[in-house]
Protein backbone atom coordinates (compact mmCIF):
# COMPACT_ATOMS: atom_id res chain seq x y z
CA UNK A 1 0.00 0.00 0.00
CA UNK A 2 1.29 3.46 -0.97
CA UNK A 3 4.56 1.98 -2.22
CA UNK A 4 6.07 2.04 -5.69
CA UNK A 5 8.34 -0.35 -7.53
CA UNK A 6 11.33 1.47 -9.00
CA UNK A 7 12.65 0.34 -12.38
CA UNK A 8 15.76 1.69 -14.14
CA UNK A 9 15.60 1.62 -17.94
CA UNK A 10 18.74 1.11 -20.09
CA UNK A 11 18.72 4.73 -21.31
CA UNK A 12 18.67 6.11 -17.75
CA UNK A 13 14.94 6.77 -17.45
CA UNK A 14 13.54 5.94 -14.01
CA UNK A 15 10.14 4.23 -13.98
CA UNK A 16 7.90 3.98 -10.92
CA UNK A 17 5.06 1.47 -10.93
CA UNK A 18 2.05 1.39 -8.60
CA UNK A 19 -0.22 -1.52 -9.47
CA UNK A 20 -3.97 -1.21 -8.89
CA UNK A 21 -6.10 -3.66 -10.82
CA UNK A 22 -9.48 -2.57 -9.46
CA UNK A 23 -10.37 -0.74 -12.70
CA UNK A 24 -9.00 -1.00 -16.27
CA UNK A 25 -7.42 2.48 -16.20
CA UNK A 26 -3.83 3.73 -16.10
CA UNK A 27 -2.44 7.16 -15.21
CA UNK A 28 0.97 8.29 -16.41
CA UNK A 29 3.08 11.20 -15.26
CA UNK A 30 6.43 12.22 -16.72
CA UNK A 31 8.39 14.42 -14.34
CA UNK A 32 11.60 16.24 -15.27
CA UNK A 33 13.96 17.84 -12.77
CA UNK A 34 13.81 21.17 -14.55
CA UNK A 35 11.50 23.74 -13.01
CA UNK A 36 11.72 27.50 -12.77
CA UNK A 37 14.91 27.20 -10.70
CA UNK A 38 16.58 26.03 -13.93
CA UNK A 39 15.63 29.26 -15.77
CA UNK A 40 18.42 31.34 -17.25
CA UNK A 41 19.22 34.18 -14.86
CA UNK A 42 18.21 36.76 -17.46
CA UNK A 43 15.17 34.80 -18.67
CA UNK A 44 12.84 34.09 -15.73
CA UNK A 45 9.91 32.02 -16.94
CA UNK A 46 11.89 29.94 -19.46
CA UNK A 47 11.01 26.54 -17.96
CA UNK A 48 7.32 27.36 -17.80
CA UNK A 49 7.33 28.78 -21.33
CA UNK A 50 9.04 25.62 -22.58
CA UNK A 51 6.52 23.32 -20.89
CA UNK A 52 3.61 25.33 -22.28
CA UNK A 53 5.00 24.89 -25.80
CA UNK A 54 5.50 21.12 -25.71
CA UNK A 55 2.06 20.23 -27.11
CA UNK A 56 2.06 22.96 -29.76
CA UNK A 57 3.58 20.70 -32.39
CA UNK A 58 6.01 17.88 -33.19
CA UNK A 59 7.39 16.55 -36.50
CA UNK A 60 4.49 14.05 -36.53
CA UNK A 61 1.58 16.20 -35.34
CA UNK A 62 0.60 19.83 -35.09
CA UNK A 63 -1.26 21.11 -31.99
CA UNK A 64 -4.68 20.29 -33.43
CA UNK A 65 -3.64 16.74 -34.32
CA UNK A 66 -2.21 16.20 -30.83
CA UNK A 67 -5.49 17.24 -29.23
CA UNK A 68 -7.57 15.25 -31.75
CA UNK A 69 -5.55 12.04 -31.36
CA UNK A 70 -5.72 12.21 -27.57
CA UNK A 71 -9.45 12.87 -27.69
CA UNK A 72 -9.97 9.82 -29.90
CA UNK A 73 -8.23 7.78 -27.19
CA UNK A 74 -10.46 9.27 -24.49
CA UNK A 75 -7.44 10.96 -22.93
CA UNK A 76 -5.98 14.40 -22.43
CA UNK A 77 -2.54 15.81 -21.69
CA UNK A 78 -1.85 18.22 -18.85
CA UNK A 79 1.33 20.05 -17.90
CA UNK A 80 2.59 22.04 -14.94
CA UNK A 81 5.78 23.66 -13.74
CA UNK A 82 7.02 24.25 -10.22
CA UNK A 83 10.27 25.51 -8.84
CA UNK A 84 12.02 22.16 -8.98
CA UNK A 85 10.33 20.27 -11.78
CA UNK A 86 8.10 20.16 -14.83
CA UNK A 87 5.62 17.42 -15.62
CA UNK A 88 3.27 16.02 -18.22
CA UNK A 89 0.32 13.86 -17.16
CA UNK A 90 -2.41 11.80 -18.79
CA UNK A 91 -4.78 8.94 -18.06
CA UNK A 92 -6.44 6.41 -20.31
CA UNK A 93 -8.21 3.09 -20.37
CA UNK A 94 -5.76 0.21 -20.21
CA UNK A 95 -6.26 -0.76 -23.85
CA UNK A 96 -5.52 2.83 -24.92
CA UNK A 97 -2.54 3.60 -22.68
CA UNK A 98 0.12 2.46 -25.19
CA UNK A 99 -0.90 4.89 -27.99
CA UNK A 100 -1.55 7.65 -25.41
CA UNK A 101 1.96 7.20 -24.03
CA UNK A 102 3.27 7.36 -27.57
CA UNK A 103 1.75 10.82 -27.94
CA UNK A 104 3.14 11.90 -24.55
CA UNK A 105 6.60 10.74 -25.64
CA UNK A 106 6.27 12.53 -28.97
CA UNK A 107 5.37 15.77 -27.21
CA UNK A 108 8.03 15.45 -24.48
CA UNK A 109 10.95 14.43 -26.69
CA UNK A 110 10.32 16.10 -30.06
CA UNK A 111 8.61 19.51 -29.74
CA UNK A 112 9.17 21.79 -32.73
CA UNK A 113 8.25 25.10 -31.06
CA UNK A 114 6.40 26.61 -34.05
CA UNK A 115 7.24 30.34 -34.26
CA UNK A 116 3.61 31.48 -34.57
CA UNK A 117 2.66 29.48 -31.50
CA UNK A 118 5.62 30.89 -29.56
CA UNK A 119 4.17 34.39 -29.90
CA UNK A 120 0.66 33.26 -28.97
CA UNK A 121 1.87 31.43 -25.85
CA UNK A 122 4.07 34.40 -24.94
CA UNK A 123 1.02 36.66 -25.00
CA UNK A 124 -0.96 34.15 -22.92
CA UNK A 125 1.75 34.09 -20.28
CA UNK A 126 2.12 37.86 -20.22
CA UNK A 127 -1.64 38.10 -19.69
CA UNK A 128 -1.43 35.61 -16.81
CA UNK A 129 1.36 37.71 -15.32
CA UNK A 130 -0.86 40.82 -15.47
CA UNK A 131 -3.65 38.90 -13.74
CA UNK A 132 -1.23 38.00 -10.96
CA UNK A 133 -0.70 41.70 -10.32
CA UNK A 134 -4.35 41.97 -9.27
CA UNK A 135 -4.01 39.27 -6.61
CA UNK A 136 -2.69 40.44 -3.22
CA UNK A 137 -1.62 36.88 -2.40
CA UNK A 138 0.32 36.46 -5.66
CA UNK A 139 1.92 39.87 -5.15
CA UNK A 140 2.98 38.94 -1.63
CA UNK A 141 4.53 35.67 -2.78
CA UNK A 142 6.32 37.40 -5.66
CA UNK A 143 7.93 39.80 -3.19
CA UNK A 144 8.66 37.00 -0.73
CA UNK A 145 10.54 34.76 -3.18
CA UNK A 146 12.46 37.69 -4.66
CA UNK A 147 13.53 39.14 -1.32
CA UNK A 148 14.18 35.92 0.60
CA UNK A 149 16.52 34.60 -2.06
CA UNK A 150 17.57 37.58 -4.17
CA UNK A 151 16.58 38.14 -7.82
CA UNK A 152 19.70 36.38 -9.14
CA UNK A 153 19.04 33.20 -7.14
CA UNK A 154 17.36 30.23 -8.91
CA UNK A 155 14.49 30.53 -6.41
CA UNK A 156 14.30 34.31 -6.67
CA UNK A 157 11.31 34.59 -9.00
CA UNK A 158 7.86 33.11 -9.59
CA UNK A 159 7.48 30.20 -12.02
CA UNK A 160 5.49 32.38 -14.44
CA UNK A 161 8.58 34.58 -14.78
CA UNK A 162 8.82 38.33 -15.23
CA UNK A 163 7.68 40.68 -17.96
CA UNK A 164 11.25 41.45 -19.18
CA UNK A 165 12.11 37.75 -19.00
CA UNK A 166 9.11 36.64 -21.03
CA UNK A 167 9.67 39.37 -23.61
CA UNK A 168 13.32 38.35 -23.92
CA UNK A 169 12.79 34.63 -24.50
CA UNK A 170 13.32 33.59 -28.11
CA UNK A 171 12.46 30.34 -29.88
CA UNK A 172 16.12 29.30 -29.83
CA UNK A 173 16.10 29.66 -26.02
CA UNK A 174 13.21 27.21 -25.81
CA UNK A 175 14.98 24.76 -28.12
CA UNK A 176 18.21 25.00 -26.12
CA UNK A 177 16.49 24.65 -22.73
CA UNK A 178 14.57 21.60 -23.89
CA UNK A 179 17.68 19.96 -25.30
CA UNK A 180 19.63 20.46 -22.07
CA UNK A 181 16.93 19.76 -19.48
CA UNK A 182 14.62 17.16 -21.03
CA UNK A 183 16.24 13.75 -21.15
CA UNK A 184 15.91 10.27 -19.65
CA UNK A 185 18.64 10.72 -17.04
CA UNK A 186 16.83 13.79 -15.73
CA UNK A 187 13.32 12.32 -15.80
CA UNK A 188 11.00 9.69 -14.36
CA UNK A 189 7.87 8.05 -15.74
CA UNK A 190 5.23 7.07 -13.19
CA UNK A 191 2.61 4.48 -14.15
CA UNK A 192 -0.27 3.87 -11.77
CA UNK A 193 -3.23 1.57 -12.29
CA UNK A 194 -4.04 -1.64 -14.13
CA UNK A 195 -0.56 -2.51 -15.35
CA UNK A 196 1.94 -5.22 -14.40
CA UNK A 197 5.70 -4.83 -14.15
CA UNK A 198 6.26 -6.60 -17.47
CA UNK A 199 3.68 -4.36 -19.12
CA UNK A 200 5.20 -1.25 -17.54
CA UNK A 201 8.67 -2.10 -18.85
CA UNK A 202 7.31 -2.63 -22.36
CA UNK A 203 5.23 0.57 -22.27
CA UNK A 204 8.19 2.63 -21.09
CA UNK A 205 10.58 1.07 -23.58
CA UNK A 206 8.21 1.38 -26.55
CA UNK A 207 7.44 5.04 -25.80
CA UNK A 208 10.72 6.34 -24.38
CA UNK A 209 13.37 3.72 -25.14
CA UNK A 210 14.97 5.82 -27.88
CA UNK A 211 15.11 9.01 -25.80
CA UNK A 212 18.57 10.50 -25.27
CA UNK A 213 20.13 13.75 -23.99
CA UNK A 214 19.08 16.07 -21.20
CA UNK A 215 21.89 15.86 -18.65
CA UNK A 216 21.63 19.32 -17.11
CA UNK A 217 22.65 19.45 -13.43
CA UNK A 218 20.19 20.66 -10.84
CA UNK A 219 20.74 24.33 -9.94
CA UNK A 220 22.02 25.30 -6.50
CA UNK A 221 19.34 27.47 -4.89
CA UNK A 222 21.00 27.53 -1.46
CA UNK A 223 22.78 30.80 -2.18
CA UNK A 224 20.50 33.32 -0.52
CA UNK A 225 20.84 37.08 -0.77
CA UNK A 226 18.07 38.71 1.19
CA UNK A 227 17.17 42.38 1.02
CA UNK A 228 18.35 44.60 3.86
CA UNK A 229 14.83 45.55 5.00
CA UNK A 230 12.98 43.44 7.57
CA UNK A 231 9.52 44.64 6.48
CA UNK A 232 8.38 44.97 2.85
CA UNK A 233 5.22 46.88 1.95
CA UNK A 234 3.34 46.90 -1.36
CA UNK A 235 0.76 49.67 -1.75
CA UNK A 236 -2.68 48.59 -2.95
CA UNK A 237 -4.77 51.73 -2.57
CA UNK A 238 -8.31 51.25 -1.32
CA UNK A 239 -7.80 47.61 -0.30
CA UNK A 240 -10.08 46.77 2.64
CA UNK A 241 -7.77 43.91 3.66
CA UNK A 242 -4.03 43.37 3.93
CA UNK A 243 -2.30 40.23 2.74
CA UNK A 244 0.41 39.44 5.28
CA UNK A 245 3.24 36.92 5.04
CA UNK A 246 5.78 36.21 7.78
CA UNK A 247 8.53 34.14 6.17
CA UNK A 248 12.05 32.74 6.30
CA UNK A 249 14.17 30.22 4.40
CA UNK A 250 13.75 26.81 6.02
CA UNK A 251 14.98 23.36 4.99
CA UNK A 252 14.97 21.08 1.96
CA UNK A 253 12.27 18.45 1.49
CA UNK A 254 14.85 15.69 1.88
CA UNK A 255 16.13 17.03 5.22
CA UNK A 256 15.70 14.49 8.07
CA UNK A 257 13.94 17.18 10.13
CA UNK A 258 11.30 17.90 7.49
CA UNK A 259 8.72 15.54 8.95
CA UNK A 260 9.23 16.96 12.44
CA UNK A 261 8.74 20.49 11.12
CA UNK A 262 5.64 19.33 9.28
CA UNK A 263 4.19 18.15 12.59
CA UNK A 264 5.18 21.47 14.18
CA UNK A 265 3.54 23.30 11.32
CA UNK A 266 0.21 21.58 11.95
CA UNK A 267 0.29 22.96 15.49
CA UNK A 268 1.43 26.44 14.46
CA UNK A 269 -0.93 27.07 11.56
CA UNK A 270 -1.67 23.95 9.55
CA UNK A 271 -4.95 23.02 11.22
CA UNK A 272 -8.14 24.97 11.82
CA UNK A 273 -7.46 24.42 15.53
CA UNK A 274 -3.88 25.69 15.20
CA UNK A 275 -2.45 28.31 17.52
CA UNK A 276 -2.30 30.91 14.75
CA UNK A 277 -5.86 30.46 13.51
CA UNK A 278 -7.33 30.31 17.00
CA UNK A 279 -5.55 33.56 17.79
CA UNK A 280 -6.24 35.68 14.70
CA UNK A 281 -9.66 34.29 13.77
CA UNK A 282 -11.33 32.93 16.89
CA UNK A 283 -9.85 35.10 19.64
CA UNK A 284 -9.45 38.44 17.86
CA UNK A 285 -11.67 38.25 14.77
CA UNK A 286 -8.99 39.82 12.57
CA UNK A 287 -9.47 37.40 9.67
CA UNK A 288 -11.54 34.58 8.21
CA UNK A 289 -8.49 32.33 8.44
CA UNK A 290 -4.76 32.19 9.17
CA UNK A 291 -2.37 29.41 8.24
CA UNK A 292 1.25 28.36 8.06
CA UNK A 293 3.22 26.09 5.76
CA UNK A 294 6.60 24.44 5.30
CA UNK A 295 7.09 24.34 1.54
CA UNK A 296 8.43 21.32 -0.34
CA UNK A 297 11.55 22.21 -2.29
CA UNK A 298 14.71 20.46 -3.45
CA UNK A 299 16.83 23.21 -1.90
CA UNK A 300 15.88 24.85 1.41
CA UNK A 301 12.42 26.34 0.87
CA UNK A 302 10.36 28.90 2.76
CA UNK A 303 8.52 28.51 6.05
CA UNK A 304 5.51 30.84 6.05
CA UNK A 305 2.77 32.21 8.24
CA UNK A 306 0.02 33.85 6.19
CA UNK A 307 -3.30 35.61 6.55
CA UNK A 308 -5.50 38.19 4.89
CA UNK A 309 -6.60 40.55 7.65
CA UNK A 310 -8.71 43.68 7.98
CA UNK A 311 -6.71 46.74 7.01
CA UNK A 312 -7.41 48.49 10.31
CA UNK A 313 -5.83 45.63 12.31
CA UNK A 314 -2.79 45.03 10.12
CA UNK A 315 -0.32 46.04 12.81
CA UNK A 316 -2.10 44.08 15.52
CA UNK A 317 -2.27 41.01 13.28
CA UNK A 318 1.45 41.13 12.48
CA UNK A 319 2.17 41.46 16.20
CA UNK A 320 0.15 38.30 16.90
CA UNK A 321 1.83 36.40 14.06
CA UNK A 322 5.24 37.26 15.50
CA UNK A 323 3.96 36.20 18.91
CA UNK A 324 2.76 32.80 17.69
CA UNK A 325 5.95 32.05 15.75
CA UNK A 326 8.04 33.02 18.77
CA UNK A 327 5.76 30.98 21.00
CA UNK A 328 6.68 27.82 19.10
CA UNK A 329 10.19 28.21 20.57
CA UNK A 330 8.91 28.95 24.06
CA UNK A 331 5.99 26.55 24.47
CA UNK A 332 6.54 22.94 23.33
CA UNK A 333 3.65 21.20 21.63
CA UNK A 334 1.26 19.67 24.13
CA UNK A 335 0.18 16.04 24.11
CA UNK A 336 -3.19 17.02 22.64
CA UNK A 337 -1.59 19.20 19.97
CA UNK A 338 0.85 16.44 19.06
CA UNK A 339 -1.96 13.90 18.78
CA UNK A 340 -4.06 16.17 16.54
CA UNK A 341 -1.07 17.00 14.32
CA UNK A 342 -0.13 13.36 13.87
CA UNK A 343 -3.69 12.32 13.09
CA UNK A 344 -4.06 15.12 10.57
CA UNK A 345 -1.02 13.96 8.63
CA UNK A 346 -1.73 10.24 8.69
CA UNK A 347 -5.47 10.51 8.05
CA UNK A 348 -4.97 12.69 4.97
CA UNK A 349 -2.44 10.32 3.39
CA UNK A 350 -5.12 8.17 1.66
CA UNK A 351 -6.30 11.25 -0.25
CA UNK A 352 -2.90 11.35 -1.98
CA UNK A 353 -3.73 7.94 -3.44
CA UNK A 354 -7.44 8.48 -4.00
CA UNK A 355 -7.28 7.61 -7.70
CA UNK A 356 -4.69 6.68 -10.29
CA UNK A 357 -3.99 10.28 -11.30
CA UNK A 358 -3.41 11.50 -7.74
CA UNK A 359 -1.28 8.41 -7.09
CA UNK A 360 0.94 9.15 -10.09
CA UNK A 361 1.36 12.77 -9.02
CA UNK A 362 2.24 11.77 -5.47
CA UNK A 363 4.80 9.18 -6.54
CA UNK A 364 6.38 11.68 -8.97
CA UNK A 365 7.46 13.66 -5.90
CA UNK A 366 9.59 10.72 -4.79
CA UNK A 367 11.79 11.25 -7.84
CA UNK A 368 11.72 15.03 -7.60
CA UNK A 369 12.81 15.09 -3.95
CA UNK A 370 14.97 11.94 -4.06
CA UNK A 371 12.89 9.98 -1.56
CA UNK A 372 12.77 6.15 -1.34
CA UNK A 373 10.01 4.19 -3.15
CA UNK A 374 8.45 3.09 0.16
CA UNK A 375 8.51 6.59 1.65
CA UNK A 376 4.74 6.94 2.05
CA UNK A 377 4.35 3.34 3.17
CA UNK A 378 6.72 3.93 6.10
CA UNK A 379 5.61 7.47 6.90
CA UNK A 380 2.74 6.61 9.30
CA UNK A 381 5.12 4.63 11.53
CA UNK A 382 7.65 7.45 11.62
CA UNK A 383 4.94 9.97 12.48
CA UNK A 384 3.41 7.71 15.14
CA UNK A 385 6.73 7.25 16.96
CA UNK A 386 7.71 10.93 16.82
CA UNK A 387 8.00 12.58 20.24
CA UNK A 388 7.17 16.11 21.35
CA UNK A 389 10.82 16.56 22.33
CA UNK A 390 11.97 15.69 18.81
CA UNK A 391 9.50 18.16 17.31
CA UNK A 392 10.61 20.89 19.73
CA UNK A 393 14.30 20.26 19.00
CA UNK A 394 13.71 20.56 15.23
CA UNK A 395 11.66 23.71 15.78
CA UNK A 396 14.42 25.36 17.79
CA UNK A 397 16.99 24.35 15.20
CA UNK A 398 15.17 25.73 12.16
CA UNK A 399 12.52 28.32 13.10
CA UNK A 400 13.95 31.83 13.50
CA UNK A 401 11.17 34.39 14.13
CA UNK A 402 13.66 37.12 15.00
CA UNK A 403 14.88 37.24 11.41
CA UNK A 404 11.68 36.36 9.52
CA UNK A 405 10.57 38.82 6.86
CA UNK A 406 7.23 40.59 7.02
CA UNK A 407 5.49 41.22 3.68
CA UNK A 408 2.33 43.30 3.69
CA UNK A 409 0.20 44.08 0.62
CA UNK A 410 -2.48 46.65 1.36
CA UNK A 411 -3.51 50.30 1.49
CA UNK A 412 -0.28 51.97 2.51
CA UNK A 413 -1.84 55.08 3.97
CA UNK A 414 -3.74 52.87 6.43
CA UNK A 415 -1.15 50.23 7.20
CA UNK A 416 2.12 52.21 7.21
CA UNK A 417 1.54 53.91 10.59
CA UNK A 418 0.53 50.60 12.15
CA UNK A 419 3.65 48.84 10.88
CA UNK A 420 6.01 51.65 11.92
CA UNK A 421 4.61 51.47 15.44
CA UNK A 422 5.74 47.86 15.77
CA UNK A 423 9.45 48.78 15.47
CA UNK A 424 10.28 45.52 13.72
CA UNK A 425 13.22 46.95 11.81
CA UNK A 426 13.96 48.67 8.49
CA UNK A 427 10.95 49.05 6.19
CA UNK A 428 11.19 48.86 2.42
CA UNK A 429 8.65 49.32 -0.36
CA UNK A 430 7.98 47.27 -3.45
CA UNK A 431 5.88 47.35 -6.60
CA UNK A 432 3.50 44.50 -7.42
CA UNK A 433 6.21 42.91 -9.59
CA UNK A 434 8.70 42.94 -6.71
CA UNK A 435 10.82 45.87 -7.84
CA UNK A 436 12.06 48.16 -5.04
CA UNK A 437 10.66 51.67 -4.79
CA UNK A 438 11.65 54.48 -2.47
CA UNK A 439 9.42 55.90 0.25
CA UNK A 440 7.74 58.23 -2.27
CA UNK A 441 6.78 55.29 -4.48
CA UNK A 442 9.32 55.87 -7.27
CA UNK A 443 11.34 52.98 -8.66
CA UNK A 444 14.65 52.77 -6.83
CA UNK A 445 17.63 53.02 -9.15
CA UNK A 446 20.60 50.67 -8.63
CA UNK A 447 23.62 52.14 -6.91
CA UNK A 448 26.39 52.92 -9.44
List the helices and strands and how they pair.
Layout lengths: L4 E4 L5 E6 L5 E8 L13 H8 L9 H10 L5 E4 L4 E8 L3 H13 L5 H18 L3 H14 L13 H6 L2 H11 L5 E7 L3 H12 L22 E5 L5 E9 L8 H13 L4 H9 L3 E8 L7 E9 L3 H17 L4 H14 L7 H13 L6 H10 L3 H11 L6 E6 L1 H9 L6 E4 L5 E2 L11
Parallel strand pairs: 2-6, 7-11, 7-12
Antiparallel strand pairs: 1-2, 3-5, 3-6, 4-5, 8-10, 8-11, 9-10, 12-13
What does this structure look like?
With 448 residues, the protein is an alpha+beta fold. It folds into two domains: 5-208, Metalloenzyme, LuxS/M16 peptidase-like (Cytochrome Bc1 Complex, Chain A, domain 1, 2-Layer Sandwich), CATH 3.30.830.10; 231-359 and 370-437, Cytochrome Bc1 Complex, Chain A, domain 1, CATH 3.30.830. Helices cover 42% and strands 18% of the residues. It is built from 16 helices and 13 strands. A hairpin with a 5-residue loop joins β12 (427-430) and β13. The model has no long low-confidence stretch (mean pLDDT 94).
